[in-house]
Amino acid sequence: MKRVSNVTVRKRLIFALSIGLVVFLVMVVRLGFVQLVMGDEIATRAEDSWSRNIPFEAKRGEILDRNGIPLATNISAPSVLVVPRQIEDPSGTAQKLAEILNMDPQKAYEFVTKNASIVRINPEGRKMSNELAEEVRKLKLPGVFIAEDNKRHYPFGKYLSHVLGFAGIDNQGLTGLELFYDERLSGEQGHVSYYSTAKGTRMPNLADVYTPPVNGQHLKLTIDSKIQTIIERELDNAEAKYNPDGAIAIAMNPNTGEILGMSSRPDYDPERFREVPPEIYNQNKPVWSQYEPGSTFKIITLAAALEEGIVDLDKDNFHDPGYIEVSGHKLRCWKKCGHGSQTYLEVVQNSCNPGFVALGEELGKETLFQYIHDFGFGSETGIDLQGEGTGILFDLEAVGPLELATTSFGQGVSVTPIQQVAAVAAAINGGKLYQPYLAKEFIDPETNEVISRTTPTLRNTIISEETSAEIRRALEHVVAKGSGRKAYVDGYRVAGKTGTAQKAKGGRYLENNHIVSFIGFAPADDPQIVIYVAIDNPKNIIQFGGTVAAPIVGNIMEDGLRALGVEKRGGQIEKELMWDDEPIVDVPDLVGLTMREINQAYYELQLEVEGNGNEVLVQSPAPNTRVRAGSTIRIYMGDKPEEEQ
Question: What is the DSSP string of 283-319?
Fold first, then answer.
């Protein structure tokens, strides 16, 4: 037998010891790494494997008008959750839940025996009333929990429905501003965690852990509820009166791009959106609709002609025989016999198509279409709503003399309502094209501090202040003496332009089916608001923008300017009365007069008399107030005290 030397044995022992030491060091290092570096992660994994979370929904941020009036809020709506492994009597639990939640017992049984850690009873147990949730609580059923939840509430119903949009059952935004700003409105979910065994039963002596939800940010809009209420009222009246296929109204501050009001018909209740077809709640007409603008588009041709210096409104004349020939086609004016010889101020005032064709021809297609693009047509305005259209313009290469002529007066091109409002605002505010917007501020729900604020975005400067002033002057004449007379508001210097556009289908224009519109602004010398109204196919009336849309804008303008605190001003062009117009008269000073003196004066006013006495002590409205002829003046009769006689 071979003897192993002591040296060899020693070497083997040292080698074995070294290997053991290396293994030991590796284990120590690994243990240290696990304890010190991976400890938190492993503990978290272990905690996750033991813990069960009962979710607590975050509250969506409220949506407010510019004055802080809530337009979209939240109301408490608890939900039922079950932990199947903790349920001791599945059959009995299912029966009791089915009775309270008014659901099929078999369906309830499937929920409470489902192979899952936590199950929502959906939809019967989702977003319930607090009274129903309390009934479930009183049962004290093992494994059945009530999770605090909430649902979206729109306190004004259909009001501003397409703009606000709505949120779904999981509080996610689905349309409108609710979708566009969903990330900032939604917040972060919280939960209550409890610890359970592998069998799903609660671990004894371990406290629950509550992680609070982070509520969504509040959104303050540019919308003014006073203006919006007026718009909603007028569109409701238009629906009742004309039974149109649709209606649109937009109000904007022309100096900033802030949307003050926006609505369309048909509308819907956001809390009952499932009851209407998707084509109603998915179509926000002010930003989505694309149609021929008609004569409201003439403002762009006018702006280009004035800026290029090819026309003087007072000195240049145009003779209108009722048509103009272009490439063998007769393009007719709405007045078949024509307007005869007129200044270009009267061309605008009379909305004379041949006159605008002449302007378009002088401008040429390159220049006119450059201005059209500069005013924002053919591209999105950038408003903070999804689904915005771009409109449809001719490719410049395809524009011949006929296409140039029809574009000059708003036919053959398609635009969106919001494009028209932004473009006209630029034409009358000194030439500045602003991006329209709705989100004014985001606010911290806990501190009420402003997190971020939107400032006006200037996209382009297109024309000079001098050109803009001429446009304002011309459009004020349209309202005082032309096709927009029914938008006239005494003392407020309203200006604007009518539009009547045929609707096309299958490549042909429909008969007696128009979109009639009016776009107006006031005061003409310092515009504070621009309002656009379009009525789609109004029934039982002659379909002209001046007869249908202009009076609606006039009503919105009169009440809206008062709501904004805009004072009446002098310098208004006197209205040229038509046969059906009511004259405007000054209220006389009746105080101190007797009834005999009043009757002898023959005022064009009605009297409502109260009190007994020989002379007028008080009157309403006050002297020098301008009212329609035939209006009622209230007077109080009495006798002066002896010391005043």
Answer: --HHHH--B--GGGGHHHHHHHHHHTT---TTT-EEE
Mean pLDDT of the chain: 88
pLDDT at residue 536 in the model: 95
- For domain 225-563, the question of CATH label 3.30.450.20 is answered with no
Q: Summarize the confidence of residues 65-79 as an average pLDDT.
A: 92
| CA neighbor of 546 nearest in space, from 586, 522, 517 | 517
Task: Examine the pLDDT at 313 and tell me if it is beyond 60.
Answer: yes
Predicted local confidence at residue 251, as pLDDT? 98
Cα–Cα distance, 513 to 536 (Å, whole number): 8
- Overall size of the chain counted in residues: 645
The residue type found at 264 is: S
- φ/ψ of residue 228, rounded to 5: -60, -40
Stretch 137-166: mean pLDDT: 89
Helices 365-374, 298-307: axis angle to 10 degrees equals 110
How far, in Å, CA of 378 to CA of 390, rounded? 5
Average pLDDT of span 620-636: 86
Residues 6+ apart with CB under 8 A from 487: 479, 494, 496, 518, 520, 550, 551, 553, 554, 557
Chain centroid to Cα 93, Å, comes to 47
CB-CB contact of 549 with 535 (8 Å): yes
Domain boundaries, the chain: 6-37, 52-220, 225-563, 584-644
Continuous segment of H or E residues that includes residue 182: helix 182-186
Share above pLDDT 70 across residues of the chain, in percent, rounded to a whole number: 90
Dihedral-angle region of residue 559 (phi above 0 means left; psi in -120 to 50 means alpha; beta otherwise): alpha
Which one is predicted more confidently, 127 or 190?
Answer: 127
- The fold for domain 52-220 equals Penicillin-binding protein 2a (Domain 2) (3.90.1310)
Three-class DSSP category at 51 = strand
Entry pTM: 0.81
Instruction: Say which residue the tokens 């093992």 belong to.
Output: 142
What would the mean pLDDT of 601-608 be, rounded to a whole number?
83
Instruction: For residues 245 and 265, give the distance between their C-alpha atoms in angstroms, rounded to a whole number.
Output: 8
Of 124-128, 407-411, 479-483, 577-581, least confident by mean pLDDT is 577-581
Residue type, 238: A
| Between residues 192 and 519, the one the model is more confident about | 519
Amino acid sitting at position 284: N
Res. 331: pLDDT tops 50 = yes
| Residue 293 CA from chain centroid, whole number | 21
Asked if 498 contacts 518 with a C-beta cutoff of 8 angstroms, the reply is: yes
Task: Let me know: does 246 contact 503? Beta carbons within 8 Å.
Answer: no
Alpha carbon distances (Å) from 192 to 78, 201, 207, 208? 15, 16, 10, 7
Q: How far apart are CA 432 and CA 451, in angstroms?
A: 28
Binned at pLDDT 50, 70 and 90, residue 418 comes out as: very high
pLDDT value of position 211: 73
Instruction: Specify the 3-state DSSP secondary structure of 179.
Output: helix
Tokens 């000079």: give the residue: 464
SS3 assignment, position 234: helix
- Residue 99's SS3 state is helix
CATH code given to domain 584-644: 3.30.10.20
pLDDT, mean of residues 286-294:
93
By annotation, the residues acting in catalysis are 295
Give 394 or 335, the one with higher predicted confidence: 394
Report the alpha-carbon distance of residue 566 to residue 48 in Å, rounded. Answer: 62
CB-based burial of residue 578 (10 Å sphere; 0-12 exposed, 13-18 middle, 19+ buried)?
exposed
Give the separation between CA 587 and CA 517, rounded to whole angstroms.
Answer: 34
